[in-house]
Amino acid sequence: MNNSVLSSQAEPHFDRLQPRLQLRNINKSFGGVQALKNVDFEAYAGEVVGLVGDNGAGKSTLVKTMSGAYIPDSGEILVDGQLLSIASPQDATRLGIETVYQDLALCDNLDVVANLWLGREAYRWLIPGMIKTLDETEMERRTIEVLRMLDVKIPSVRRPVATLSGGQRQCIAVAKTILRQPKVVLLDEPTAALGVAQTRQVLNLIQRLKQQGLAVVVISHNLHDVFAVCDRAVVMRLGQRSATFDIKNSTSEQVVAAITGAEYRDSPVPSPEMI
User: Fold this and answer.
1) I need a surface site. Which of 45, 169, 185, 269 has the fewest CB within 10 A?
2) Handedness of CA 173, 178, 179, 183 (dihedral sign)
3) What HEC string does 85-104 produce?
4) What is the CATH number of the domain that holds 220?
């Protein structure tokens, strides 16, 4: 069993030249509807990318392609520069791509430790090779370790998830993916229906993921959150990537114009200086 989690001590090395996740010329149709048309996408280590667009723009289809829920009709997917096939969510997880959807997929009646380890519990042998039991001590230790690394504050890791706030629950869902040591984390509307304080907690968590060297993709309708936490914003419109913005040098008005079609800009592949 691998007992390591992402280190909060050492400064990660970020590869600014090669995308951690890259999609090339992705096409996906459902019957006569072409949901994605020749879409390119890239996310680098130590970067937060906002994926924005109106309803029906293709954001969800693109994310489900990254996560293995959909298989593209054509196109290429690369992880760390290696051309790979992702035919299922299990393939994506194995390759280091984790997704946190809006429903969070948490069990309200279980405590934090049980939720983080559900389906992949740690065991210890009572009689070697014959009888084993759950290693509650080890699971609790590693749960506390990963929550501390992400700066997630909760009263106790033994509290049922149902008693936690919306922001805390979102953080627990993200921490659950971190135990698998991912390379890429996809967050689907992570601040939806959260209050101001809870939203700030989740945005701080996203910054922590970036600092740990992960490539983070945030799907959001909230441009305030995008400008608060993202390095770049990729705009989807009518199934195509219509624009790319460097957040530091852009305004929300420009992004809204691209979303609505009032302004169209080509989508350059980002230079290392943009990240």
Assistant:
1) 269
2) positive
3) CCCCHHHHHHCCEEEECCCC
4) 3.40.50.300
